[in-house]
Amino acid sequence: MSEKIYQGNIITSKSFDELEIIEDGYVCVRDGIITDVSKEWKKEYRDHEYIDHRGHLILPAFSDLHMHAPQYPQRGIGMDCLLFDWLNDYTFPQEANFKDETYAKTVYAKLIRDFIAQGSFHLVLYTTIHMNACNILADMLKEAGLYAYTGLTNMDRNSPDYYVDTTEESLRKTEEFILRNMGHDRVRPILTPRFAPTCTKELMEGLGGFAKKYDLGVQTHLVESKAEAAWAKELYPEFASDGEIYEKCGLLQGSGPKIFAHVIFPTEVEERILKEYDGISVHCPDSTSNITAGIMPAMKMSRKGLKIALGSDVGGAHFLAIYRTIARAVQISKMKEFYEGDERVKLANAFYMATVNGGSIFDRVGKIEKGYRFNALVVEDMLDEKLPHFLIGCIGKVLLHR
Ligand code: GUN
Ligand code: FE
Known about the structure:
Strand content: 15-25%
Helix content: 25-40%
CATH architecture of the largest domain: Alpha-Beta Barrel
Number of helices: 12
Bound molecules: guanine, fe (iii) ion
């Protein structure tokens, strides 16, 4: 099989603190895998198909590690609420619509189209409590060639009558979803307890059993707001903190990724757990500005060696595009720096979170480097200036290999 050579201004991460920009560089690709990256033309490129992207940026596709697929039509609605009102007044009624399979197909088809157009190829997705809609989403992701972890959302208390499962139902449906969707190379199941307040201990322990039995990871919301952390503690008085609920109920026993959204108020317990289980904290600056009270201490946590990725958290956030989340992570961190003295997030840091850290739970994605998949974006580089124009979203071409 012949190789392809792409030429353009390559942007990738050199380290957490530094971008690498290779002007008019070459990326050599065979079967979707990068076989060489070079600043210079090499003789052996002669026989390869040449694709000219000079005057454009070539960068790795983004990873969105926290997004609620059924909330896609809801973005921008209820932005003036705090978390609990937003959930009860807007979000639960919206998610309940996914009982209807036709509705699910319509929304999920548009969502997948937009993920690809916006350059987010690697995803961790919440769903709803509806088995058929969850399977529809998983099948559509597989068909599109996207990379994803997704699971049936678990809720067996503190939820409205029209949108809740019994403990037994929730566990039965979860296991059925796991068994149906295990074994695919790109789209994989993950345990998805909505958050501690909507899950009983019995349900959490049941999910802990699946973590071990099927060797799965987990996604959840963790110390998301002061009210949420306090409510979790009240409901689980035997545990020291929100994070300990997941640990003690066995949800961290599998080898799959442990994805914790928000982590705005981590205690020493959360920090220990994140380290010990190689957890990823997902910074969703748009969402936590819109509906919650706080800004993740992203740099403080990064400097302690904790891994931070980015998430859109649509519909808490009103935008899907991770390139906008990168800009927002920088922007909001300056408020934290100004008022609390935390270090600001630089563009290179946020880019690393959105590509390398986010990509680390998938198979060799997130860098333009030999051995990585060439899941990449081609972006107009207005005047060939090698500037980060990707932040304003003029993505010209998406390179997603089947
Ligand atoms: N906590 C519980 N459910 C949700 C949700 O749907 N979105 C966000 N951002 N936080 C939550
Ligand atoms: Fe969320």
